[in-house]
Prior knowledge:
The chain is an alpha+beta fold and about 140 residues long. The chain contains three helices and six strands. The longest helix has 9 residues, at about 60-70.
Amino acid sequence: xxxxxxxxxxxRLTRDPQLSYLPSQTAVVDIGLxxxxxxxxxxxxxxxxxxxxxCRMFGKRAEVINKYLKKGDPIFIEGRLTFDSWTSQDGAKxxxxxxxxxxxxxxxxxxxxxxxREAEQPMPADDVQEPPKDDIPF
Length: 138
């Protein structure tokens, strides 16, 4: 059976990007993304819902996101769903579904033209790869 794991989202950052580095010195940025939907219900009332999604990117482009974006800025991302599970300090098992960003585009004036050009630069294939699971500190 074939598999396909692709996520495409357009939204705004819910918080400033959080940049950190793995022990291998690979940059990791975590962002929160809010996407909204508006529609008219059967009763004629306008309705609205917001979906909040945690996203993560690795490598040099993670540093670009951190440098040029802030809370409230729009971004278009493409990536894949990733399931993380761990044991918390109190011994409880925890899990989270997040989007691992593979590519992105700045939208609007956020980041300026320089950030847009830098984000669109082709990156070496090894920069796009996610590090091994045992290299991610939880």
